[in-house]
Protein: FANCJ protein
Amino acid sequence: GRCTECSCSSGKEPDKDPSHTKKKENGDRLCVPKIFFGTRTHKQISQITRELRRTAYSYVPMTILSSRDYTCIHPVVSNSSNRNELCVELLEGKHGKSCSYYHNAHKLREHHLLQSAHGVYRAWDIEDLVSLGRQLRACAYFGARELMVEADIVFCPYNYLLDPQIRECMDIELKDQVVILDEAHNMEDCARESVSYEVTEGQLRAAREELDFMVNNNIRQKHHEPLRAVCCSLI
Structure:
């Protein structure tokens, strides 16, 4: 999980319990669910946050989960076509380098900086998060994930909610939470894409060659022969 507290300058905002729970009259703790709002595209998230800004709930702690394509500000990684792998390499320090922006991600936990960035309390968009990240030299991608801990509303594309691997990677736990899917008739296509994989003929031929080598050299032959048969049948 990667946290924030939001305080309203007008003093009208209800006190936030850091553990994201409220006390019941009998002293027990009542868990307050988050609202996960899924959309088909990132552009639709912008439209929804703009509408949220016009409501009385504009001050509510929120975050937006999106890909590195939209949030990475590292001068090298952000200009690469392979942002995910380069980011992971930096975080693992494979080449003796690290990402200073990642280590500053905690600076974005001060949620009020986002909401009062323009002098008024309002819901923010990905562009606002990235802009503040540039000012603070802080990673907007991981900063948004940290903001999720105390967020009441989490905006994200459909696949962040539908794909179990992405849910695990992003530390998204949907049990006992509220899930809203905007334009839900698009969900079938998104679900289909989440469990689909595209492979080229060239990749299949390369895989077959490698599997040929494994089988011919008696390397785990019983495991590689069925895989080679699959490649051959697809080709």
Observations:
- The beta strands are 21-23, 29-31, 35-39, 62-64, 153-157, 178-181.
- The chain has two domains: 35-195, 201-234.
